[in-house]
Amino acid sequence: MIPLSSGSDSMNLPSLKEAGKRTKSSIPFITEEYNLPESLKKLGTGRKYFIRTYGCQMNVHDSENIKAILEMMSFEETETLENADFILLNTCAIRENAHNKMFGFLGRVKHLKETHPHIITAICGCMAQEESVVEALMKKYKWVDVIFGTHNIHRLPYIIERAMSRQEQEIEVFSKEGEVIENIPVKRDSKYKAWVNIMFGCDKFCTYCIVPYTRGKQRSRKKEFILEEVRDLVKHGYQEVTLLGQNVNAYGKDLEETSSMGELLEEVAQTGIPRIRFMTSHPWDFDDKMIDVIARYDNIMPYVHLPLQSGSNRILKLMGRRYTKEQYLELVSKLKKKIPNLALTTDIIVGFPGETEEDFEETLEVVRACEYDSAFTFIFSPREGTPAARMEDTTPMEEKNTRLYKLNELVNEYANKKNQQYLGKTVKVLIEGPSEKGNLMGYTETMKLVNVDGSSSDIGKIVDCEITDVKTWSLDGKVV
Ligand code: SAH
Ligand code: SF4
Ligand code: F3S
Question: Topology of 16-172 in CATH?
């Protein structure tokens, strides 16, 4: 049974100041079985839930946990908003447009709630950790019934129970460094691919980023629990795991018995799971052991997502990224030399406060040097409470848009060029299911999306596909 107040001595409303604090106190590991009192197990009987998830894979995986908890409470899932009795938005705070999307959707939910007042509406995820968001929800969205934070997921049954028995808004958001809770149940979206958390939180405090405030201190899971989870997935026929964390290369550095990502990757590879991926890698902690292990094991995919953010040393410094352009380029050349067939992707921010045309040109130069397979590109979005939000920013939005456009043109050119190299080749694809075009779809080892001509009996298998056509964002192929 998870204790009602596990690890909580904080207030129930979020505080960015509290959330940004880091102490040396050790991280609580909670390893009890997750169980609920009988009364909570029936709370959802006859009720349907709908979840909409925004943001990164960590949120996607949190939603898989939330679904399992709700089903333990006898709620049933529905994918139709209009059929739901419990509507939950699992939110992302990374950029302003993530906020806007969620508030847009909330409009639709409000409409439903007006005509069906029995519906319970809830908001969780990273936006729930933000003071100003919760203040707005308390003032202007009083009809939202429940707000709970990223540290409160395991307590959801108790939170819902309270919400059902009172009229006021129910808010439970802890702003704390966090703990590691094993055994939270999970209802996985896929039978073939699984997300596996290896660490929570982030201590890098890049100056633009809200994540260290919304997710707490860096906390690694103990290796034995991770390996146990992967072995169990192998037993159940899973073909692929993605090891998740905001900065996976720093895995284990916070543990008493320190462990490294290289060691962990090696032991996960030895479980025999056919495919291993990991994300996200911060260039700072990418050591030689890791590169060596990726190169040595065929079941560790030759795919690295390595956020650059900027190619200008001056901007990297202002961002607090702790590497220079030269160090980044050296790492990339080492990776490419040691891992044949490597696919490399990245994240880039344009229009960081004070970024000049010259700084931006340097970013383009790095893109040319790295020849990325693809890149996620963003315009800087000031996040309340972060240092970059207080930096002077004189670049007009129009100029930032122009930079983004130029950057995307260059990124697309290389993406296309990389994809062209696949034409006529035979590659391994894990077939995940039907594609939108009515055929099958899956991903190559290098994370290229392939629309595949094949039969439904191939679903869930890794098959050889010949690439017959190439687009900028996907490949077409047929099973051979
Ligand atoms: N932990 C990962 C990044 C997670 S956030 C890492 O360090 O690589 C995903 C991406 O969102 C970041 O890589 C960054 O490019 C972008 N991002 C984060 N904060 C942002 C902000 N305030 N404005 C614009 N983009 C941002
Ligand atoms: Fe944010 Fe930086 Fe942590 Fe990534 S490493 S989550 S960008 S603070
Ligand atoms: Fe968004 Fe939170 Fe992930 S801010 S990107 S959902 S960690």
Answer: Rossmann fold (3.40.50)
